[in-house]
Amino acid sequence: MSMLQARIHREPSIFQSLQKEWNPLVFRSSANRIFSTWEWNWHWWRAYSPGELAIITVRDPGGQLLGIAPWFIEEEEGHRLVATIGCDEVSDYLDLIIAHGAEEPVLAAITSCIIDEGIDADCFYFCNMPADSPARHLWPAILASAGFSTQIEPQEICPRIQLPGRWEDYLQQISKKQRHELRRKLRRFAAIPEETAWFSVTRPEQLSQALPQFFQLMSKSDPAKAAFITEPANQDFFEAISHSAAENNWLQLSFLTIRGECCAAYFNFCYENELLVYNSGLSAGRYAVHSPGIVLLAYMIQDAIEKGMSLIDFLRGDETYKFRMGGIGAPIYKLIAQLPVRETCSPSLS
Protein backbone atom coordinates (compact mmCIF):
# COMPACT_ATOMS: atom_id res chain seq x y z
CA MET A 1 0.00 0.00 0.00
CA SER A 2 3.03 2.30 0.39
CA MET A 3 3.38 2.53 -3.40
CA LEU A 4 -0.13 3.68 -4.24
CA GLN A 5 -0.36 6.00 -7.22
CA ALA A 6 -2.79 8.92 -6.96
CA ARG A 7 -3.56 11.20 -9.89
CA ILE A 8 -5.87 14.16 -10.54
CA HIS A 9 -7.98 14.09 -13.71
CA ARG A 10 -9.38 17.35 -15.02
CA GLU A 11 -10.94 16.38 -18.38
CA PRO A 12 -14.50 15.03 -18.75
CA SER A 13 -13.12 12.16 -20.86
CA ILE A 14 -12.07 10.55 -17.56
CA PHE A 15 -15.68 9.38 -17.16
CA GLN A 16 -15.44 7.28 -20.31
CA SER A 17 -11.97 6.05 -19.36
CA LEU A 18 -13.22 4.84 -15.96
CA GLN A 19 -16.63 3.56 -17.02
CA LYS A 20 -15.78 -0.17 -16.90
CA GLU A 21 -13.89 0.11 -13.58
CA TRP A 22 -16.09 2.58 -11.69
CA ASN A 23 -19.06 0.49 -10.63
CA PRO A 24 -17.03 -2.64 -9.80
CA LEU A 25 -15.15 -0.44 -7.32
CA VAL A 26 -18.43 0.96 -5.96
CA PHE A 27 -19.70 -2.59 -5.41
CA ARG A 28 -16.65 -3.49 -3.30
CA SER A 29 -16.71 -0.30 -1.23
CA SER A 30 -18.64 1.18 1.70
CA ALA A 31 -19.98 3.77 -0.77
CA ASN A 32 -22.16 1.17 -2.52
CA ARG A 33 -25.15 3.42 -3.11
CA ILE A 34 -26.78 4.56 -6.33
CA PHE A 35 -25.43 8.09 -5.77
CA SER A 36 -21.86 6.78 -6.12
CA THR A 37 -22.41 4.88 -9.36
CA TRP A 38 -20.82 5.88 -12.63
CA GLU A 39 -24.26 6.63 -14.06
CA TRP A 40 -25.17 9.07 -11.31
CA ASN A 41 -21.85 10.90 -11.45
CA TRP A 42 -21.73 11.11 -15.25
CA HIS A 43 -25.31 12.28 -15.70
CA TRP A 44 -24.93 14.84 -12.92
CA TRP A 45 -21.76 16.25 -14.45
CA ARG A 46 -23.21 16.27 -17.96
CA ALA A 47 -26.38 18.09 -16.79
CA TYR A 48 -24.81 20.66 -14.44
CA SER A 49 -21.02 21.03 -15.01
CA PRO A 50 -20.76 23.78 -12.35
CA GLY A 51 -16.99 24.25 -12.50
CA GLU A 52 -13.75 22.37 -13.09
CA LEU A 53 -13.36 18.62 -12.71
CA ALA A 54 -10.83 17.38 -10.17
CA ILE A 55 -11.36 13.62 -9.97
CA ILE A 56 -8.61 11.79 -8.09
CA THR A 57 -7.96 8.12 -8.79
CA VAL A 58 -5.79 5.85 -6.64
CA ARG A 59 -4.26 2.64 -7.99
CA ASP A 60 -2.01 -0.05 -6.58
CA PRO A 61 1.36 -0.82 -8.26
CA GLY A 62 -0.36 -3.35 -10.50
CA GLY A 63 -2.79 -0.74 -11.80
CA GLN A 64 -5.87 -1.95 -9.93
CA LEU A 65 -8.26 0.88 -9.10
CA LEU A 66 -8.63 1.23 -5.32
CA GLY A 67 -10.12 4.68 -4.88
CA ILE A 68 -12.02 7.49 -6.58
CA ALA A 69 -12.52 10.97 -5.16
CA PRO A 70 -15.24 12.30 -7.53
CA TRP A 71 -14.72 16.04 -7.07
CA PHE A 72 -15.12 19.34 -8.84
CA ILE A 73 -13.99 22.92 -8.11
CA GLU A 74 -16.51 25.74 -8.07
CA GLU A 75 -16.15 29.49 -7.65
CA GLU A 76 -18.37 30.73 -4.84
CA GLU A 77 -18.39 34.22 -3.35
CA GLY A 78 -14.76 34.81 -4.27
CA HIS A 79 -13.58 31.41 -3.01
CA ARG A 80 -12.57 28.28 -4.88
CA LEU A 81 -14.47 25.41 -3.34
CA VAL A 82 -13.82 21.68 -3.82
CA ALA A 83 -16.98 19.59 -3.49
CA THR A 84 -18.21 16.11 -4.30
CA ILE A 85 -19.94 15.57 -7.64
CA GLY A 86 -23.65 15.59 -6.88
CA CYS A 87 -23.41 18.04 -3.99
CA ASP A 88 -25.86 18.71 -2.79
CA GLU A 89 -29.42 19.27 -4.03
CA VAL A 90 -30.21 16.16 -6.07
CA SER A 91 -28.00 13.62 -4.26
CA ASP A 92 -28.69 12.18 -0.82
CA TYR A 93 -25.57 10.19 0.15
CA LEU A 94 -22.12 11.16 -1.15
CA ASP A 95 -18.77 9.66 -0.31
CA LEU A 96 -15.28 8.78 -1.44
CA ILE A 97 -15.29 5.43 -3.25
CA ILE A 98 -12.63 3.19 -1.70
CA ALA A 99 -12.13 -0.58 -1.82
CA HIS A 100 -12.89 -2.38 1.45
CA GLY A 101 -9.73 -2.79 3.52
CA ALA A 102 -7.80 -0.03 1.72
CA GLU A 103 -9.46 2.98 3.33
CA GLU A 104 -6.57 4.42 5.38
CA PRO A 105 -3.81 4.17 2.73
CA VAL A 106 -6.12 5.44 -0.01
CA LEU A 107 -7.23 8.41 2.10
CA ALA A 108 -3.57 9.14 2.84
CA ALA A 109 -2.73 8.93 -0.87
CA ILE A 110 -5.59 11.29 -1.77
CA THR A 111 -4.43 13.75 0.89
CA SER A 112 -0.85 13.67 -0.40
CA CYS A 113 -2.09 14.12 -3.96
CA ILE A 114 -4.02 17.25 -2.95
CA ILE A 115 -0.80 18.79 -1.64
CA ASP A 116 1.74 17.39 -4.10
CA GLU A 117 -0.18 17.99 -7.32
CA GLY A 118 -1.74 21.16 -6.02
CA ILE A 119 -5.49 21.63 -6.09
CA ASP A 120 -5.93 25.38 -6.25
CA ALA A 121 -8.77 25.81 -3.76
CA ASP A 122 -9.55 27.70 -0.59
CA CYS A 123 -11.85 25.15 0.97
CA PHE A 124 -12.89 21.51 0.71
CA TYR A 125 -16.60 20.93 1.36
CA PHE A 126 -17.93 17.38 1.41
CA CYS A 127 -21.67 17.14 1.97
CA ASN A 128 -24.12 14.30 2.66
CA MET A 129 -21.57 11.87 4.11
CA PRO A 130 -23.27 8.76 5.57
CA ALA A 131 -22.79 7.99 9.24
CA ASP A 132 -20.99 4.74 8.39
CA SER A 133 -18.56 6.36 5.95
CA PRO A 134 -14.94 5.32 6.68
CA ALA A 135 -13.91 8.75 5.38
CA ARG A 136 -15.99 10.43 8.06
CA HIS A 137 -14.25 8.44 10.77
CA LEU A 138 -10.69 8.17 9.42
CA TRP A 139 -10.04 11.14 7.19
CA PRO A 140 -10.10 14.07 9.67
CA ALA A 141 -7.04 12.72 11.50
CA ILE A 142 -5.19 12.09 8.22
CA LEU A 143 -6.01 15.62 7.02
CA ALA A 144 -4.93 17.10 10.36
CA SER A 145 -1.57 15.31 10.18
CA ALA A 146 -1.05 16.94 6.77
CA GLY A 147 -1.72 20.43 8.15
CA PHE A 148 -5.42 20.82 7.36
CA SER A 149 -7.93 22.20 9.80
CA THR A 150 -11.16 20.21 9.70
CA GLN A 151 -14.64 20.35 11.09
CA ILE A 152 -17.32 17.72 10.77
CA GLU A 153 -20.90 18.10 11.92
CA PRO A 154 -24.38 16.72 11.33
CA GLN A 155 -26.08 18.12 8.23
CA GLU A 156 -29.51 16.49 7.87
CA ILE A 157 -31.30 13.24 8.62
CA CYS A 158 -32.56 10.47 6.38
CA PRO A 159 -35.55 8.67 7.96
CA ARG A 160 -35.47 4.92 7.30
CA ILE A 161 -37.68 1.91 8.01
CA GLN A 162 -36.10 -1.47 8.70
CA LEU A 163 -38.53 -3.88 7.07
CA PRO A 164 -39.71 -7.06 8.82
CA GLY A 165 -40.82 -10.15 6.99
CA ARG A 166 -44.58 -9.52 7.21
CA TRP A 167 -46.95 -6.59 6.72
CA GLU A 168 -48.59 -7.15 10.11
CA ASP A 169 -45.19 -7.00 11.78
CA TYR A 170 -44.52 -3.70 10.02
CA LEU A 171 -47.80 -2.30 11.36
CA GLN A 172 -46.64 -3.17 14.88
CA GLN A 173 -43.58 -0.96 14.33
CA ILE A 174 -45.68 2.21 14.03
CA SER A 175 -47.70 3.84 16.82
CA LYS A 176 -51.15 2.54 17.71
CA LYS A 177 -52.72 5.77 16.48
CA GLN A 178 -50.91 5.67 13.14
CA ARG A 179 -51.65 1.97 12.74
CA HIS A 180 -55.35 2.69 13.19
CA GLU A 181 -55.21 5.64 10.75
CA LEU A 182 -53.35 3.68 8.09
CA ARG A 183 -55.77 0.76 8.25
CA ARG A 184 -58.70 3.18 8.07
CA LYS A 185 -57.27 4.91 4.99
CA LEU A 186 -56.65 1.61 3.24
CA ARG A 187 -60.21 0.41 3.97
CA ARG A 188 -61.67 3.71 2.75
CA PHE A 189 -59.64 3.51 -0.44
CA ALA A 190 -60.66 -0.10 -1.06
CA ALA A 191 -64.32 0.93 -0.74
CA ILE A 192 -64.16 3.58 -3.51
CA PRO A 193 -66.84 2.64 -6.05
CA GLU A 194 -64.73 3.87 -8.99
CA GLU A 195 -62.02 1.76 -10.58
CA THR A 196 -58.70 2.10 -8.71
CA ALA A 197 -55.23 0.78 -9.45
CA TRP A 198 -51.59 1.16 -8.59
CA PHE A 199 -48.71 0.13 -10.81
CA SER A 200 -44.98 0.64 -11.24
CA VAL A 201 -42.98 1.59 -14.31
CA THR A 202 -39.57 -0.05 -14.40
CA ARG A 203 -38.53 -0.41 -18.06
CA PRO A 204 -36.89 2.20 -20.34
CA GLU A 205 -39.52 1.84 -23.09
CA GLN A 206 -42.25 2.87 -20.62
CA LEU A 207 -40.65 6.20 -19.70
CA SER A 208 -41.76 8.25 -22.71
CA GLN A 209 -45.26 8.31 -21.25
CA ALA A 210 -44.55 7.83 -17.54
CA LEU A 211 -41.99 10.61 -17.03
CA PRO A 212 -44.19 13.45 -18.36
CA GLN A 213 -46.98 12.15 -16.13
CA PHE A 214 -44.67 12.19 -13.14
CA PHE A 215 -43.37 15.69 -13.93
CA GLN A 216 -46.96 16.92 -14.14
CA LEU A 217 -47.84 15.44 -10.74
CA MET A 218 -44.62 16.76 -9.28
CA SER A 219 -45.43 20.28 -10.50
CA LYS A 220 -48.97 20.15 -9.13
CA SER A 221 -47.88 18.98 -5.70
CA ASP A 222 -45.69 21.92 -4.71
CA PRO A 223 -44.63 25.30 -6.21
CA ALA A 224 -40.99 24.66 -5.32
CA LYS A 225 -41.08 21.33 -7.16
CA ALA A 226 -42.76 23.01 -10.12
CA ALA A 227 -39.95 25.58 -10.28
CA PHE A 228 -37.33 22.83 -9.89
CA ILE A 229 -38.57 20.64 -12.72
CA THR A 230 -38.95 23.54 -15.17
CA GLU A 231 -35.18 24.15 -15.00
CA PRO A 232 -33.70 22.50 -18.14
CA ALA A 233 -30.68 21.07 -16.28
CA ASN A 234 -32.89 19.45 -13.65
CA GLN A 235 -35.19 17.92 -16.23
CA ASP A 236 -32.19 16.73 -18.25
CA PHE A 237 -30.72 15.03 -15.20
CA PHE A 238 -34.02 13.43 -14.20
CA GLU A 239 -34.60 12.03 -17.67
CA ALA A 240 -31.06 10.71 -18.04
CA ILE A 241 -30.87 9.05 -14.63
CA SER A 242 -34.37 7.58 -15.13
CA HIS A 243 -33.29 5.79 -18.29
CA SER A 244 -30.00 4.60 -16.81
CA ALA A 245 -31.74 3.39 -13.65
CA ALA A 246 -34.33 1.52 -15.73
CA GLU A 247 -31.60 -0.09 -17.85
CA ASN A 248 -29.91 -1.31 -14.64
CA ASN A 249 -33.15 -2.48 -12.98
CA TRP A 250 -32.84 0.23 -10.34
CA LEU A 251 -36.01 2.19 -11.18
CA GLN A 252 -39.47 1.97 -9.65
CA LEU A 253 -41.78 4.80 -10.76
CA SER A 254 -45.07 4.09 -8.98
CA PHE A 255 -48.50 5.58 -9.72
CA LEU A 256 -51.94 5.41 -8.11
CA THR A 257 -55.01 6.02 -10.24
CA ILE A 258 -58.72 6.48 -9.60
CA ARG A 259 -60.99 6.07 -12.62
CA GLY A 260 -57.90 6.38 -14.83
CA GLU A 261 -56.81 9.67 -13.25
CA CYS A 262 -53.29 9.74 -11.80
CA CYS A 263 -53.59 11.04 -8.24
CA ALA A 264 -50.20 10.25 -6.72
CA ALA A 265 -46.75 9.06 -7.77
CA TYR A 266 -43.42 8.17 -6.20
CA PHE A 267 -40.09 8.17 -8.00
CA ASN A 268 -38.08 5.41 -6.32
CA PHE A 269 -34.85 3.52 -6.75
CA CYS A 270 -34.43 -0.16 -5.92
CA TYR A 271 -30.77 -0.62 -5.09
CA GLU A 272 -29.00 -3.32 -3.08
CA ASN A 273 -32.31 -4.70 -1.77
CA GLU A 274 -33.41 -1.29 -0.48
CA LEU A 275 -36.23 0.95 -1.70
CA LEU A 276 -35.13 4.60 -1.91
CA VAL A 277 -38.07 7.03 -1.97
CA TYR A 278 -36.45 9.79 -4.01
CA ASN A 279 -39.27 12.15 -5.03
CA SER A 280 -43.03 12.36 -5.24
CA GLY A 281 -45.96 14.02 -6.97
CA LEU A 282 -49.55 14.54 -5.88
CA SER A 283 -52.67 15.84 -7.57
CA ALA A 284 -55.40 14.59 -5.27
CA GLY A 285 -58.10 17.10 -6.26
CA ARG A 286 -61.56 15.68 -5.67
CA TYR A 287 -59.96 12.49 -4.36
CA ALA A 288 -57.99 14.18 -1.57
CA VAL A 289 -60.31 12.71 1.06
CA HIS A 290 -58.96 9.27 0.12
CA SER A 291 -55.32 10.18 1.00
CA PRO A 292 -53.87 8.81 -2.25
CA GLY A 293 -50.27 9.70 -1.37
CA ILE A 294 -50.29 7.73 1.89
CA VAL A 295 -52.26 4.87 0.34
CA LEU A 296 -49.73 4.53 -2.48
CA LEU A 297 -46.87 4.62 0.01
CA ALA A 298 -48.52 1.85 2.03
CA TYR A 299 -48.90 -0.27 -1.12
CA MET A 300 -45.21 0.30 -1.90
CA ILE A 301 -44.21 -0.80 1.60
CA GLN A 302 -46.37 -3.92 1.32
CA ASP A 303 -44.80 -4.71 -2.04
CA ALA A 304 -41.27 -4.20 -0.70
CA ILE A 305 -41.97 -6.57 2.20
CA GLU A 306 -43.38 -9.20 -0.17
CA LYS A 307 -40.23 -8.92 -2.29
CA GLY A 308 -38.03 -9.45 0.78
CA MET A 309 -36.47 -6.00 0.70
CA SER A 310 -34.60 -4.97 3.83
CA LEU A 311 -35.13 -1.22 4.06
CA ILE A 312 -37.24 1.74 3.03
CA ASP A 313 -35.06 4.86 2.89
CA PHE A 314 -36.94 8.16 2.68
CA LEU A 315 -33.62 9.94 2.04
CA ARG A 316 -33.01 13.53 3.12
CA GLY A 317 -35.72 15.54 4.83
CA ASP A 318 -37.66 15.47 8.09
CA GLU A 319 -41.21 15.61 6.70
CA THR A 320 -43.75 14.42 9.27
CA TYR A 321 -45.24 11.64 7.15
CA LYS A 322 -41.89 9.83 7.06
CA PHE A 323 -41.92 9.40 10.83
CA ARG A 324 -45.63 8.57 10.97
CA MET A 325 -44.92 5.72 8.58
CA GLY A 326 -42.25 4.41 10.94
CA GLY A 327 -39.11 6.14 9.75
CA ILE A 328 -36.21 6.52 12.19
CA GLY A 329 -33.80 9.34 11.43
CA ALA A 330 -30.23 8.47 10.42
CA PRO A 331 -27.85 11.45 10.29
CA ILE A 332 -25.65 12.47 7.40
CA TYR A 333 -22.66 14.77 7.86
CA LYS A 334 -20.68 17.53 6.23
CA LEU A 335 -16.90 17.75 6.38
CA ILE A 336 -15.11 21.05 5.79
CA ALA A 337 -11.32 21.14 5.49
CA GLN A 338 -8.79 23.81 4.63
CA LEU A 339 -5.13 24.57 5.03
CA PRO A 340 -4.48 27.06 7.85
CA VAL A 341 -2.86 29.53 5.43
CA ARG A 342 -6.17 29.85 3.57
CA GLU A 343 -8.75 32.45 4.42
CA THR A 344 -11.71 30.92 6.22
CA CYS A 345 -14.63 30.11 3.98
CA SER A 346 -18.18 29.14 4.88
CA PRO A 347 -19.83 27.19 2.06
CA SER A 348 -23.39 28.21 1.46
CA LEU A 349 -24.23 24.82 -0.07
CA SER A 350 -25.22 23.47 3.33
**Helicity, as a percent range:** 25-40%
**Strand order, biggest sheet?**
2-5-6-8-15-9-14-13-12-11-10
Could you say what the CATH topology of the largest domain is called?
Aminopeptidase
Number of domains: 2
What kind of assembly state do the chains in view correspond to?
Answer: single chain
Which spans have pLDDT < 50 for at least 5 consecutive residues? none
* Share in β-strands: 25-35%
The CATH class of the largest domain = Alpha Beta
Q: In DSSP terms, counting alpha (H) and pi (I) runs of 4 or more, how many helices?
A: 11
| Overall spatial form | elongated
CATH architecture of the largest domain: 3-Layer(aba) Sandwich
Distance between the termini: 35 Å
Taking Cα atoms only, what radius of gyration do you get, to the nearest Å? 22 Å
**Elements, N to C (H/E):** EHHEEEEEEHEHEHHEHHHEEEHEHE
Can you identify the CATH superfamily of the largest domain? Gcn5-related N-acetyltransferase (GNAT)
Please outline the major beta sheet.
11 strands, mixed
The mean pLDDT is 94
Structural class: alpha+beta
Number of strands: 15
